[in-house]
């Protein structure tokens, strides 16, 4: 997990092909939680899963 900020979180993800175990995708996935109005907010669930390091 890579910390972005209190509202933004990210993690590295690698996807390998099953048949030959070659790297197919190497990505940094970035996200944020949003409320019902589409505004960023700090969800307790996200904070628990992605604590700031």
Throw out a few tags for this protein.
53 residues; 3 strands; three-stranded antiparallel β-sheet; mainly beta; 40% strand
Secondary structure layout:
Elements: E1 2-3, E2 8-16, E3 23-32, H1 44-49
Protein architecture, described:
The protein has 53 residues and is mainly β. Helix content is 11%, strand content 40%. The protein has a three-stranded antiparallel sheet with strand order 1-2-3, with no helix packed on it.
Number of strands: 3
Radius of gyration: 14 Å
Given as residue ranges, the uncertain stretches (5+ residues, pLDDT < 50) are none
> Per DSSP, what share of the residues sits in E-state strands of 2 or more residues?
35-45%
The main β sheet shows up as:
3 strands, antiparallel
Shape: elongated
Helix content: 10-25%
Quaternary state of this entry equals single chain
Strand order of the largest sheet: 1-2-3
Structural class by SSE content:
mainly beta
SSE order = EEEH
Q: Report the span from N to C terminus.
A: 9 Å
- Summed up, the helix count is 1
Q: Could you tell me the mean pLDDT?
A: 82
């Amino acid at each position: 997990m890579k910390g972005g900020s209190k509202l933004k979180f990210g993690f590295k993800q690698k996807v390998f092909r099953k048949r030959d175990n070659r790297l197919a995708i190497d990505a940094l996935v970035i996200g944020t939680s949003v409320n019902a109005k589409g505004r960023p907010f700090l969800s307790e669930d996200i904070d628990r899963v992605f604590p700031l390091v």
